[in-house]
Amino acid sequence: MSKSYVVIAEVRDGKLRQVTLEALQSIGLAKEHEDTVAAVVLGHQISNIAEQLSQYVSGQIHVVDHKDLEFYNAEIHFSVIKEVLDTLSPHAVFLGHTASGRDLAPMIAAYLNAGQLSDVISIEKTESEVRYTRPLYAGKAFEQKIFTEGPQVITIRPNNIAVANISDAQAEIITVEYSPPLSLRTIVRDVIRKTSGKVDLTEAKIVVSGGRGVKSMDGFKPLQELADVLNGAVGASRAACDAGYCDYAMQIGQTGKVVTPEIYIACGISGAIQHLAGMSQSRIIIAINKDPEAPIFKLADYGIVGDLFVVVPLLTEEFKKALA
Amino acid sequence: MNIYVILKQTFDTEEKIVIQDGNISDDGVKYVINPYDEYAIEEALRQKEQHGGNITVVSIGPSRLAEALRTALAMGADEAVHVSDDAIHGDEFSVSKVLAAYFNDQSYDLILGGNFSIDSGGGQVAIRLSQLLNIPHVSSIIKLDVIGAQAIVLRDSEGDTEKLEVTLPALFTAQQGLNDPRYPSLPGIMKAKKKPFHHLTLDDLGLTETEIYARTERLSLSLPPNRKSGQILQGELHEQAAQLVQLLKHSEVKAN
Ligand SMILES: Cc1cc2nc3c(=O)[nH]c(=O)nc-3n(C[C@H](O)[C@H](O)[C@H](O)COP(=O)(O)OP(=O)(O)OC[C@H]3O[C@@H](n4cnc5c(N)ncnc54)[C@H](O)[C@@H]3O)c2cc1C
């Protein structure tokens, strides 16, 4: 019997997030040929997103388009998703391991009485089962897990699984009437966008990170300039966040975000074990530090011993030349 | 106000991970309260300082967990609940079911937890619990103001800040930046010894092993591959910068 797979699509700045295409690819890795794939997309003025999704999904695309869905509200979004899930009775639901995916997935799992595997980085299908690999201790170890029974909920870590290819599939776009939840206990009063237009840290191919060595809020400016040239994002060590040089949302490490970019550039970061946990799976690691003994150099593919305030602007110039 | 904190005990963040006989070795490992849960405890204390009430810390796990609960009591929590049972060897599905069974018999205004646990990193239990209890939740909060039966919270959403208004009872998970956890004081440690400490089993909660049977199962564990030590560039800094860009060009980095 064919099973139903569902992806909860995510829209950001009016665009489909790349992690949704990675989640679709993940479904491709897990499902059997005869299984169906559906997508759910919520938001405001998203018909173009539905069109775009239809190039990747063979089954149905459930679109819920309403002003109330412009900003994420756990209660509202979940009540809408719940209704769609009731009609689809999914075998598995895939989401991105993003702010909203991390929030919605456990609600969906509790509702479906399902198991959930969070932050999955790779998927392997054998004759008898689908194996999901995910990090423990922010990447100090990895575990391979399976579902024992029941429906499944999976969140996919951005940047680890290839994006799905456009197929010749012609999905059916279904417009779902929005009906607000009966009792609403949560109201979103305000959303202060600080990241609008910026490259998302967990999805960035290049991350330029600053530590206590950047010395001030202004010290992040040369790092941001380098990141801008490379179309990358800026991250930070906890010491930089604790010192108030930047937002905690930028923290990378065991108690922060885990990133796996193509290139990680650590500037003025000593390389504490808690920081390494969040970035050591990056493909190429570059360290810039005044102290030749800094532990970060043991991990780095390339190291420059020097003052970051001199080295980072030099690098920015060199990249500009190379990319011109 | 009835305030509850759900917490977990985890390896200290300094610990290196060693795999022995297919399991993560806990030989000589130092345990701490999950760092995110510490923010939840601190927030509970601050809310009680402002509004009065009672703080209960609740956790599920083996006997060594009592130490983490005692630390929370020494920080200022009023009561501890330790659920332990050999029949609980589950996943987040199981743990949230057990917690829900406990909370079904309690009256609560505020339940606080951590954003995620730094060991398994699932980020599921607290949010699952809010669903099972049918109360609203806000995850990853960086500010909490309780005003009567309402809470005004700020939430971190990947760097953006959302301001929400929530009707209590509600559950919140703590993000870094919410507060600065205090250390247990010596008088606090002395007082903790006399505070109520409840032990519960699955039987006490009216649950059976089959009801909480894990939905997921671990097949294997592995360590990340060792990285080869790299190359420290030489020469004038501007030469090094140019050399680095050349090296990256040749390593076929997929930018953008
Ligand atoms: C429970 C717990 C959880 C933690 N979680 C995390 C986490 O998630 N992420 C994290 O990052 N940390 C975490 N930490 C903190 C961690 O232990 C370190 O304290 C932190 O990573 C250090 O940050 P840093 O490297 O920026 O600062 P430091 O260790 O102070 O290093 C600063 C570095 O900058 C260099 N430097 C100074 N000036 C310059 C300059 N002008 N040019 C070049 N180099 C310069 C110095 O040589 C030094 O190596 C955690 C700690 C605890 C206890």
UniProtKB/TrEMBL annotation, chain A:
<feature type="binding site">
    <location>
        <position position="289"/>
    </location>
    <ligand>
        <name>FAD</name>
    </ligand>
</feature>
<protein>
    <submittedName>
        <fullName>Electron transfer flavoprotein subunit alpha</fullName>
    </submittedName>
</protein>
<feature type="binding site">
    <location>
        <position position="212"/>
    </location>
    <ligand>
        <name>FAD</name>
    </ligand>
</feature>
<dbReference type="InterPro" id="IPR001308">
    <property type="entry name" value="ETF_a/FixB"/>
</dbReference>
<keyword id="KW-0285">Flavoprotein</keyword>
<feature type="binding site">
    <location>
        <begin position="268"/>
        <end position="275"/>
    </location>
    <ligand>
        <name>FAD</name>
    </ligand>
</feature>
<dbReference type="Pfam" id="PF01012">
    <property type="entry name" value="ETF"/>
</dbReference>
<keyword id="KW-0249">Electron transport</keyword>
<dbReference type="GO" id="GO:0009055">
    <property type="term" value="F:electron transfer activity"/>
</dbReference>
<dbReference type="Pfam" id="PF00766">
    <property type="entry name" value="ETF_alpha"/>
</dbReference>
<feature type="binding site">
    <location>
        <begin position="237"/>
        <end position="238"/>
    </location>
    <ligand>
        <name>FAD</name>
    </ligand>
</feature>
<dbReference type="GO" id="GO:0050660">
    <property type="term" value="F:flavin adenine dinucleotide binding"/>
</dbReference>
<dbReference type="InterPro" id="IPR018206">
    <property type="entry name" value="ETF_asu_C_CS"/>
</dbReference>
<feature type="binding site">
    <location>
        <begin position="251"/>
        <end position="255"/>
    </location>
    <ligand>
        <name>FAD</name>
    </ligand>
</feature>
<dbReference type="InterPro" id="IPR014730">
    <property type="entry name" value="ETF_a/b_N"/>
</dbReference>
<dbReference type="InterPro" id="IPR014729">
    <property type="entry name" value="Rossmann-like_a/b/a_fold"/>
</dbReference>
<dbReference type="InterPro" id="IPR014731">
    <property type="entry name" value="ETF_asu_C"/>
</dbReference>
<keyword id="KW-0813">Transport</keyword>
<dbReference type="InterPro" id="IPR033947">
    <property type="entry name" value="ETF_alpha_N"/>
</dbReference>
<dbReference type="InterPro" id="IPR029035">
    <property type="entry name" value="DHS-like_NAD/FAD-binding_dom"/>
</dbReference>
<feature type="domain" description="Electron transfer flavoprotein alpha/beta-subunit N-terminal">
    <location>
        <begin position="4"/>
        <end position="191"/>
    </location>
</feature>
<comment type="similarity">
    <text>Belongs to the ETF alpha-subunit/FixB family.</text>
</comment>
From TrEMBL, chain B:
<keyword id="KW-0249">Electron transport</keyword>
<feature type="domain" description="Electron transfer flavoprotein alpha/beta-subunit N-terminal">
    <location>
        <begin position="21"/>
        <end position="209"/>
    </location>
</feature>
<protein>
    <recommendedName>
        <fullName>Electron transfer flavoprotein subunit beta</fullName>
    </recommendedName>
</protein>
<comment type="subunit">
    <text>Heterodimer of an alpha and a beta subunit.</text>
</comment>
<dbReference type="GO" id="GO:0009055">
    <property type="term" value="F:electron transfer activity"/>
</dbReference>
<dbReference type="InterPro" id="IPR014730">
    <property type="entry name" value="ETF_a/b_N"/>
</dbReference>
<comment type="similarity">
    <text>Belongs to the ETF beta-subunit/FixA family.</text>
</comment>
<keyword id="KW-0813">Transport</keyword>
<dbReference type="Pfam" id="PF01012">
    <property type="entry name" value="ETF"/>
</dbReference>
<dbReference type="GO" id="GO:0005829">
    <property type="term" value="C:cytosol"/>
</dbReference>
<dbReference type="InterPro" id="IPR014729">
    <property type="entry name" value="Rossmann-like_a/b/a_fold"/>
</dbReference>
<dbReference type="InterPro" id="IPR033948">
    <property type="entry name" value="ETF_beta_N"/>
</dbReference>
<dbReference type="InterPro" id="IPR012255">
    <property type="entry name" value="ETF_b"/>
</dbReference>
